[in-house]
């Protein structure tokens, strides 16, 4: 009964944060405010529904958890909607299921340290199925070849170019030591999940140039976006009324989408931070 209860709670939390992801106004990303992107809101929600059960399934290895979630997503929608989200949330779920009374951050460190070469092979396969944008070829542990190192070591090799990989290499430092506390603070300040998610997204984007934007358009462009967001983010997050900034957010959203700029890694970090905070409540 406890195992069923845990599975049900994890599925509900995961689907809720994925719903929140498209309800929040996050400039450049798909949302109910500006559903002109491809993929659209409905595809994101269908992806969350399809991938929830394998993500939360007890007894799977970390690599199997990620691969099966991506396979389920691809059966539901014919595009990449949630690779970054799954790569970040799967280790959190895996650690939470095996935490045995330990803090989640401590259990996560063990989860990542115990990852295997087979985990890496399953994750590489998942990435090839998802076909994310901006992937190129590298000399060491190329995604289009079979990995020969553990999943953790593969992520360490990629961590200088990809902030999702950097979370593996740093034991999810950005999520545990920035994202969770910032989201909690904004939620207490405004009392609204959606606006707190928007604020967290802007806070991440202002501080960390988006690695998806960097892969597609170069680091200078990614840094330019962060520099543009920084003064707005400070004013927005200090405000007592975030809704007053809706028109400005929509204007930024329109400009980014016009230029085909989607800070997707920032959105993934936002979702994972809110999910990690939610795990503490289960």
Specify the helix fraction band: 55-70%
- Helix and strand element order: HHHHHHHHHHHHHH
The biggest sheet amounts to:
none
| Gyration radius, in Å | 18 Å
Content of β-strand: under 5%
Please give the number of β-strands.
0
- How far apart the termini lie comes to 15 Å
Low-confidence runs:
none
**What shape does the CA trace take?**
globular
| Class from secondary-structure proportions | mainly alpha
Detailed description of the structure:
The chain is mainly α and 282 residues long. It has 14 helices and no strands. Helix 4 (83-97) crosses helix 5 (104-113) and helix 10 (193-207) crosses helix 12 (219-238). The longest helix is centred in the N-terminal third of the chain and has 22 residues, at 2-23. The radius of gyration is 18 Å and the shape is globular. The model has no long low-confidence stretch (mean pLDDT 94).
